[in-house]
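Hello forum,

I keep getting stuck at the same step: I have a sequence, I want structure tokens, and every attempt I make locally crashes halfway through. Rather than fight my setup again tonight, could one of you with a working pipeline run this one for me? It's a single chain of 559 residues.
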Amino acid sequence: MTPTSKKTAEEVALAYQNGTETGARYETIKVDPIPNMKQDTIRGVDVSSYLALVRNGVQFYDFDGQPADLMKVLADAGVNYIRIRMWVDPYNAAGESYGGGIDDEATVLQIAENAKKYGMKVLLGLHYSDFWADPATQLVPKQWKNLDDKDLNDEIYLYTKKLVNDFTKAGVNIDMAQLGNEITKGILGVRNEAEDVKVWQTEPQVSRMTSYISSASRAFRESSPDTQLAIHIETPDMHNYDMIMNALQTHNVDYDVLGSSYYPFWGWGGNNPDNIANVEKMVKDKYGKKFMIAESGWPFTLENADGTPNNVSWDPGHYAVSPQGQVDEIGAMYKAILSNDNGLGAFYWEPAWIPVKAGWNNWEYNKLMGDVQGTGWASINARGYYPDSKIMYEGKPASGGTSWDNNTLFDDHGYPLQSLMMYKGFLNGYVSPANVTSSLNAKINAVYKADGVNLTNPLKIGDTLDLNNVLNQEGQQLLNGTQNTSVSESSLKAIFNDLQDGFKSENYVGEAGNKYHYEFWLDGNNTAEKLSNFLKANQNAKYGVPLTVNYNATLVADR
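Reply #2:
Ran it on my machine without issues. Output:
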């Protein structure tokens, strides 16, 4: 339970290599309240890969170290909004998934239902593609690729309308919808030769793009008028954002929110808090729209936990690479967002995209799970739809596990980092509980063979024993943990295994001058009963509070 920062570099590297305890979850943080932060400010996360992971054996835990539903852990930590990406048909002709979390409609609906169960709102990130849509790649869904503009607009409208109706029938309200994903340089296959933002000033491309978005918008306005509609572009840039919003306004696109990606480790010149505040002000003053950050994130380590190269493998500067650095980056972002009254909040991108099997020694297993079960960023099955320049590298598949495991808010075994608590802390402040050591409160439960023997200061039922030297070094370490968090049953069992049984006391002298000693035995008739008694006595034990150990004492006469 040693924090990463107190381990040697070799210990940390070996932990990430072998999938053992890294100490990341024991790093402490301090969170200051954010001015203007309210209960309804979007404190959101994108967990689109979540269902693919848990279907394939990944377990998440709460802050007490107990297995828990990820959505409950998030809600308890102050998260109030879930963002989920959606692809039209993320499968090849053989029905094999493209990976990336397999975010088809059925998967997304199940994630949304789980989020609603814990009172969180839902944003659907509609890529209008069969796989990843981003500034460099905006592919038309396979079934739509031969349609002319009129039929494509009809298809977008009908697909979107059916989607809204399906969610409505399932009892899931779509609180916000994102019409396209990072459409800075195009959408649905529409680009210009230069493949840059000037596509939004070029005809007929700009008319085609805005008509597609309007078809999606119209479907929502008719079937779910209370859903807020967002446009999503990336890297805050005053000139580019003004250009794109001007095109949307000129072509009468109906939407409510301008969403932006914001990753300070990529292009600090545009991705900095001052730029967020300035762009957001322009969005309000010139176009009357609300503003949010649709994606952000920050690394807590530069180590690789699953064998797939990390997107961020260098120290970006600006903030520390640590859980506290995550708090500082996201906190600075929120201060900028809430400096204007049109700022809605933000979403952290994929804070739970951890390895299926921790340890980069397990890269082959993680790659296999990514290819077969869709748990990684991409499967080799995406080849043929997704460009080879993305899915292949030097003639070999570049598909694999997650490339985001060092940017998550959970460690590589599914335990939450303290940085997850920033979502509550941004409202009222938060300081991590201290790392403390529990003591052992050993009591005498029964005394045998003492009848008729008169000792000076004899042991009595309820007396305590000094067990400082009873545990070995490993057992002593298991008494260390985060204050007021529960001691897990596995730790209790390990502590029990280190408790000595049958040890002797110092000598006692009777009135007649005879010498005696006590022998101490854990309460119970056999090992199983002794363990059961120990676990029962400590079933609600928390670090910082003494553990109870009951012993029986037998008086023995010395020869």
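The mean pLDDT is 94. If your local run keeps crashing, start a new thread with the error log.
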